[in-house]
Amino acid sequence: MQPSSPALADPASADRLRQLVQDHAEALVGAFYQTLLADDEARVFLHHSVVQERLSPSLRRWLVDLFAPGADMAEAAFVARQLKIGEVHARIKIPMHLVMAGAAVLKQRLADVLAADPAAFDLLRLTGGRIDYALRLMSQSYEKGASNRARLDEAYRLFSLDQDIHFERESQRAGLMEWSQKTLFRILASGGVEGAGALSASPFGLWIRHRAEFLFDGSSHLARLNAAMERIDAELLPRFTPGAAASDLAGPLEALEAAVDEVAFLLGEMFQGLAGMEGGRDPLTRALNRRFLSSILSREIGFANANHTPLSVLLLDVDHFKRINDTHGHPIGDEVLRQVAEAVTENVRPSDFVFRYGGEEFLVVLVETNLRQATTIAERMRHALAAKAMTASGLEPFHVTVSIGAAEHRGHPDENYLVKAADDALYRAKQNGRNRVEYDGAVA
Amino acid sequence: MQPSSPALADPASADRLRQLVQDHAEALVGAFYQTLLADDEARVFLHHSVVQERLSPSLRRWLVDLFAPGADMAEAAFVARQLKIGEVHARIKIPMHLVMAGAAVLKQRLADVLAADPAAFDLLRLTGGRIDYALRLMSQSYEKGASNRARLDEAYRLFSLDQDIHFERESQRAGLMEWSQKTLFRILASGGVEGAGALSASPFGLWIRHRAEFLFDGSSHLARLNAAMERIDAELLPRFTPGAAASDLAGPLEALEAAVDEVAFLLGEMFQGLAGMEGGRDPLTRALNRRFLSSILSREIGFANANHTPLSVLLLDVDHFKRINDTHGHPIGDEVLRQVAEAVTENVRPSDFVFRYGGEEFLVVLVETNLRQATTIAERMRHALAAKAMTASGLEPFHVTVSIGAAEHRGHPDENYLVKAADDALYRAKQNGRNRVEYDGAVA
């Protein structure tokens, strides 16, 4: 959508507007940055000196050009410039909502300036429209850039995880021990730690700040590790003073050893956590991990809406699963889930998607499939499962049944509606006696 | 940043505004959707019937509540509602700039409605401020949601790539051949293809639309494969008519065989392309792939700005590399690059980042390092390399030199400034005779 920028007012008021903007540009830009710099989120991006040197003049130019395009600023150049700004903001991570907050300040200040003008209403309408148009264009390229950046960040994170984690763990453990050993030698030689340096300034500390923050994104262990490191540097190291008697060192040494042990323990725990990180598939059933459901379902809904093709989902639940678990134990329950997943997967096409949705629930996305076809597939699955002898070591072959809810996509762009409809149908299947298929609405 | 919503005008004009919005809500909402549905991008999300049934009434409620919050719509509830809308838009992929375009339409129509009011200017200012505030809140949660979604999409794409590609390739090749064989049996039995079904409707065709589109995102081969598949279904299959003489089948059969071969060839090529897909590291030098530079550098710039720590980069280029390649051949040139990368990596800390930046260029990100320290590290690298005997099979040990440009981050949030400064310094190092280090600006 590329609606043209709003038409200019009559030449005389357009001239007045240009003059007003030029006269007040300095103050308007000042107000804009004052607002942004008052915000914690924005301040990180906008060092004060950089704002003064580079960004203020360019915002000023942008503002003046917005209302006085003249011959040197053709419409195409105007559009290209706004798109470029959005692209740069995405690169330097200035969120769009902060730019909108700054623009709102500009608009309110401009309204103050315009209030006394004979054509105040028209000029206010014009300035609002013009600024909104610029914001819209920026947002367009910002969204694209921010999305690309998020994808790259994720690719890098997954790549980091994929590196030789064992090597990295040992290498960082060695770094920590090396610092500790050096520090102890200093203490033993002189009683003090002069010249040994803080742990946070060591290669280990640097690695924690610049690699671990990314690798263990949001880990509570990492916060504890940072706290322990800070305590070592700020509290424990200063306790060692040159020339102290050996007997005075015992307490501080014990505290330091405990703190270093804690850092080593937390480091190990974090690496341990990585090894168990969840993958793309459920390890037990080999069904897709539920975290990808939204990516896939929203893409399929987009496809169905764009191509006017049908799309259905099945939600399948193993009947009386709790009883199986309680009677035979969890390992048998797991074996049942594995065999149910196998039967489900055997009854769909290579283009369909099978997810482990919950404990004993599976969700199947059936592409280019209407409700009638979906219920047929669901009945086939139900029969196949009821007929299948489950095998588990130490048990006679036994049978399980499943209840299935089917629903067809009805055009709503929100995937939650579709899943909810299948869930409602599944609920009815359970209510109506289990081992049956129910569907949402009427079959065409 | 959570600026409060603009203050309401005096009670009488606030009442008039509420009445005006209510009276015109129907028309305003109509204009909003007319604009969005005229847009190709937006139409995909908003099926007409869905808009009528669900979205129009909720936009109408939103609009009325925006100006008549009343007792039942406290400020916190207002904020929560806008944030929720942004979240939903991110989920159903309605881009923020389209919402802004719709809002611009609302504002312009509202201005028409308000123009005759005695307090037109104030009301216009108020409505603009109120809508902008709502948009800002939506944008805030939209950006977060869209970024999470982009990360998940990428994780899923990389997960798909990681699956058993060889198995998938053979399985889809078999699917294509199975369709082809079935179709040929029909033709040989009757001369026609009734009941054989289109290739695009076969499991293979479905797989192409729902899996390959994602796996081979944007591949030109895929576009050609889709075109070939469409030609088979729309042009070639209709040439077979039941009861045709065997002699009439020769031409159409030849054309069909060629087209199926083309589809098989393109499928193979696409899978081939996946195998050679670039990973996180340059396979030759094991340096990081340049595509992650932006993710890493922008994160480090954010860290430096937030923590007031220094940050520097080195750009390193092998001197006279073309001569090495020309004299000894590319394999020797590759060996030189490998050994240069090794020497560079040996001279940085575990927390630094070494990228293959171009053919014979490497970029090093030095965290928590100022320009003085960076030039020291650069000089150490330069000496280490000049002293290092390069070894390559069939050649006497020989030496290469490097030129290095160093630059320190000066606060600008755009990473391109920093890389550009290092590049300028590298250029000077080359101009000043090579085998030397130059730096950007004055060393503190």
UniProtKB/TrEMBL annotation, chains A, B:
SMART domains xrefs: GGDEF
- Annotated InterPro entries: Diguanylate_Cyclase, DosC_2nd, DosC_GS, GGDEF_dom, Globin-like_sf, Globin-sensor_dom, Globin/Proto, Nucleotide_cyclase
Q: Which NCBIfam families match?
A: GGDEF
Q: Which domain of life is it from?
A: Bacteria
Protein name listed in UniProt: Diguanylate cyclase DosC
State one Pfam family annotation.
DosC_2nd
EC number(s) per entry: 2.7.7.65
CDD domains with a match to the protein in the record? GGDEF (cd01949), GS_EcDosC-like_GGDEF (cd14757)
Essential cofactor(s) = heme
The entry's keywords: Heme, Iron, Magnesium, Metal-binding, Nucleotide-binding, Transferase
**Where in this chain does the record put each GGDEF domain?**
309-442
Q: Which reaction does it catalyse?
A: 2 GTP = 3',3'-c-di-GMP + 2 diphosphate
